[in-house]
Design brief:
The complex is a heterodimer of chains A (164) and B (252).
Chain A (H helix, E strand, L loop, with lengths): L3 H12 L2 H17 L10 H14 L2 H7 L3 H8 L8 H4 L6 H10 L2 H12 L4 H8 L3 H28 L1
Chain B lengths: L2 H12 L5 H13 L1 H21 L6 H23 L6 H37 L6 E2 L3 H7 L18 E11 L2 E10 L2 E9 L12 E5 L2 E8 L2 E7 L3 H16 L1
Antiparallel strand pairs in B: 1-2, 2-3, 3-4, 4-7, 5-6, 6-7
The chains are: A mainly alpha (164), B alpha+beta (252).
């Protein structure tokens, strides 16, 4: 089962629940087996599998709940720019994994998923665009906003820790 | 390139999305500009930190087994339906089917594992940051894995061997995490993967297996409860020389 562990990791990040992630991966595999005829040889198999998973997520309970969060409402909070290269931002790399995971957890799904696909699954912008069925420009803008939001959150966490 | 132009493209750089034609100019600017270099480093460190933290969830062995059984039963059912439509043949067919499927599953399992290991090597080399701990010193690289892996391993002495340790990262494969160590030899890069060997996890027998996937040499063996893989475009003799060094380190 190639990709199984990676699909599961992505599913768990999307659903934020173990049993829902298992259901999602199971349903994705069943759909992929049934619909393997629709996979075009020579195209990107990984993007095809992730697309099935993402589409299945969208119609799941967790997906419907995530869809009720308006991206526009979150963008105001996400676009606030922060300075690069400050001593605070450099501390990000020294923060523990739990803090970084909490920052990822706190991102709205559209930002969390592009960051995971880019940084964890190391997909190209083109692959992410294919997987999520969004324009490549949207991939880049969500990545930029999501990363800015994460850096802001982590900088604040780092500052809170320094004052404890 | 100006600093503003560089800042506008830093994300493309750390994501390996910068067009090849711009890379030389971009890196030349970074070498001469401490501010831009610091920003690039910070973005790279953040990306690495997210990658490490983002690989958080591992499927449970129970769930994995359930999925494997479900997929196997589907494959077996389809195969049986095609070959033996009449129930009168069921008794004989069942025996033949079990034998064939066992051989087939072992073989396809092994093929799949080798291909995935080769993919891990290629993916790491294609990454802008193939290793998370960068050091030629085994006393720096080995301790970095402490607390990140559920096992420990020994690294060989490399003096006069021609091999150089480049660094390491945590690799994720099937049921869990393992070590990926990158070595260089002349112009070749060699990945050494080490995973804990659970019963029935890897469809390999005892002894050494050598194979070629994606024009890469692969050597795998089991030692002290750990499964080792070496993947490289180096000649098989060089891959074997590194495996000998690792075996010697494991025995020392």
């Amino acid at each position: 089962m190639p990709l199984f562990a990676r699909l599961y990791n992505f599913a768990h990040w999307l659903t934020q629940d173990r049993s829902e992630a298992e259901e999602l991966v199971q349903e994705t595999c069943v759909k992929a087996l049934k619909g393997f005829g629709s996979f075009r040889q020579g195209t990107n198999f990984r993007a095809w599998m992730y697309r099935i998973l993402k589409n299945t997520f969208l119609t799941s309970r967790a997906g419907l709940k995530a869809a009720t969060i308006s991206l526009d409402d979150d963008e105001a909070a996400l676009v606030e720019p922060i300075a690069h290269g400050t001593p605070e931002s450099i501390l990000i790399s020294s923060l523990d994994q739990q803090t970084i995971q909490a920052a990822l957890d706190g991102l709205p799904v559209p930002y969390r998923e592009v960051i995971l696909l880019c940084d964890v699954d190391e997909m190209s912008y083109q692959e992410i665009a294919e997987t999520l069925a969004i324009p490549i420009g949207t991939v880049m803008s969500r990545l930029s906003r999501g990363r800015k939001a994460m850096r802001k959150w982590l900088n604040e966490a780092s500052t809170r820790r320094a004052f404890k | 390139m100006t600093c503003d132009e560089i800042r506008g493209k830093l994300a493309h750089y750390v994501d390996s999305e910068l067009p090849a034609g711009e890379l030389a100019d971009f890196e030349s600017h970074l070498r001469g500009c401490a501010t831009c270099a610091a920003e690039a480093l910070e973005m790279l460190q953040t990306k690495r930190a997210i990658r490490a933290a983002g690989t958080r969830y591992v499927p449970s062995p129970e769930f994995r087994l359930r999925m494997e059984q479900s997929i196997r039963s589907r494959s077996q059912r389809r195969w049986f339906d095609m070959r033996f439509p009449r129930l009168a043949l069921a008794g004989v067919a069942a025996v033949l089917l079990i034998a064939s499927v066992t051989v087939l599953l072992n073989r396809t399992g092994r093929e799949r594992e080798l291909t995935e290991i080769a993919d891990l090597h290629v993916t790491a080399l294609a990454s802008s940051n193939p290793v998370d701990v960068i050091s030629t010193d085994k006393h720096t690289v080995k301790p970095w894995f402490a607390g990140r892996l559920p096992f420990s391993f020994d690294l060989p002495e490399l003096q006069d061997s021609g091999f150089t340790l480049v660094g390491g990262r945590v690799a994720y494969f099937e049921r869990g995490s393992g070590a990926q160590l990158l070595f260089s030899l002349r112009k070749h890069q060699l990945s050494v993967f080490i995973f804990k060997e659970e019963p029935r996890e890897f469809p390999f027998h005892e002894g050494t297996l050598t194979a070629t996937r994606l024009a890469l040499q692969i050597e795998t063996w089991s030692e002290g409860g750990l499964r080792y893989f070496i993947v490289s475009d180096a000649p098989a003799s060089d891959v074997h020389a590194l495996s000998e060094l690792l075996r010697k380190a494991a025995h020392s």
